[in-house]
Write a structure and sequence with these properties.
alpha/beta, 6-stranded mixed β-sheet, 4-stranded antiparallel β-sheet, about 35% helix
Length: about 250
């Protein structure tokens, strides 16, 4: 049964090509508030390209992006700036700066926004570090901490601005199964605690289903399914069954 809440983000008939390569074809999907939506599909199916459209790093060749009922094209420059402030992004490889301490990495979005004084920045950073069990690592550098800790630092940085929407691009890449589960649990716990809307691009099938309320399946640049994990697992579509069984 389709979620009845008003979508936070709607994508209608979106298309994107790079030269002669058509990456996204007539994409239609909805992302609902205060839920985790998982976007799954084979490598090269446009999942990360889709994510970059949602955060505004790319613009579509055709179609509409609608946020909270309003077409992105109708936003003024000031409104678009406010909208971007509601987003945060956790990159595939954590994207921490090796030359900056853990504290400086987490504080970076606050420093760049020019809206907070040093005391406010310190309070916000320390609060997130406490919540994510990385307190005391302030002066360490990314090269001095484990892969799992780097993911926590990256999540702390994504959360430090109190975003409404966090986009996760393959957040468990390069981790062993135990740490993968730990990152999924971490995302789920903080989503429940803080209520943000999460969009997770993932290869981790079926593990990702345990934390997602909705799943979107991309195949050959098109959405072939969107609904709950339970609905996905009941599908008789042979392509979807291959996804679930990890054959694709």
């Amino acid at each position: 049964m389709e979620n009845q809440t008003t979508p936070l983000i709607e994508i209608k008939h979106m298309a994107k090509s790079f030269g002669s390569l058509e990456v996204l074809k007539d994409i239609n999907l909805t992302i609902h508030p205060s839920e985790i939506t998982a976007i799954i599909g084979k490598s090269g199916e446009g999942k990360s390209v889709l994510l970059k459209h949602i955060i505004g790093l790319l613009r579509p060749d055709a179609g509409q992006l609608i946020f909270a009922g309003k077409n992105l094209n109708d936003y003024s420059k000031a409104e678009y700036g406010e909208l971007k402030d509601k987003f945060s992004y956790m990159f595939q490889d954590s994207a921490l700066f090796d030359s900056m301490t853990v504290y400086e990495n987490i504080a970076l979005p606050l420093v760049e926004s020019h809206r907070f004084n040093k005391t406010e920045i310190k309070q916000r950073v320390q609060q997130r570090m406490q919540q994510l069990d990385i307190a005391g690592t302030d002066e360490q550098y990314p090269g001095q901490i484990s892969g799992g800790m780097k993911k926590r630092v990256a999540l702390a940085r994504a959360l430090v601005t109190d975003p409404e929407i966090i986009l996760f691009d393959e957040p468990t890449t390069g981790l062993d199964p135990i740490r993968k589960k730990s990152v999924h649990t971490m995302i789920s716990e903080y989503q429940q605690k803080l209520g943000f809307t999460g969009v997770v691009v993932s290869h981790e099938i079926p593990d990702i289903f345990s934390i997602a309320q909705r799943v979107v399946v991309l195949n050959e640049g098109e959405v072939i399914f969107q609904g709950s994990p339970a609905e996905l697992e009941q599908s008789s579509d042979p392509i979807i069954l291959s996804f679930i069984q990890g054959e694709l």
